[in-house]
Hints:
Layout: H1 2-11, H2 19-38, E1 53-54, H3 55-59, H4 65-68, H5 78-99, H6 101-122, E2 124-125, H7 128-141, E3 146-149, E4 153-156, H8 157-174, H9 177-186, H10 188-223
Antiparallel strand pairs: 1-2, 3-4
Amino acid sequence: xxxxxxxxxxxxxxxxxxxxxxxxxxxxxxxxxxxxxxxxxxxxxxxxxxxxxxxxxxxxxxxxxxxxxxxxxxxxxxxxxxxxxxxxxxxxxxxxxxxxxxxxxxxxxxxxxxxxxxxxxxxxxxxxxxxxxxxxxxxxxxxxxxxxxxxxxxxxxxxxxxxxxxxxxxxxxxxxxxxxxxxxxxxxxxxxxxxxxxxxxxxxxxxxxxxxxxxxxxxxxxxxxxxx
Length: 228
């Protein structure tokens, strides 16, 4: 990706180091405050109620919602929230180390812009597909990394990535047109960074199958006694 290398040479010094640590810290803080609010009968709403993305509320002047939705934690259960936050921190940290802070910043920023566009199209959005784009990138770059599914079944991350990719494709096929657009722009970062590689792999696979088929027919002809 020459365009990305050119950007890094010009603007690399502006990269935010440890971006994922900052995001996870924000999510953890929101989760703790929501948990405190839930336990306190004097409060009628959660902090996350003030942060989620809502196009109508943004148009009414609550413009912070265009960004603060990024800090809404992925789960309300303490156990799973802690696991999810640690896992996404691990993913972000690994991508940061693999690409460098600038390229990881750009990947995340493109995902943010795409998610916001999706929210503008549909009226609302979450950071779910944005987080999924991080997971898919991790699965491509570290396919043999093992996780414990249900905390006791070892599974390579590439298989979970394939499953998530299949579910994403399913959602894309059977959703409405606005949702299709919203899903596509939400994972635009993954498409830009890995789309060319996937196309090349598909082309190589097709050429390999054609070669094997041609070679197979050639071998059949040589072994056919009626053609000698």
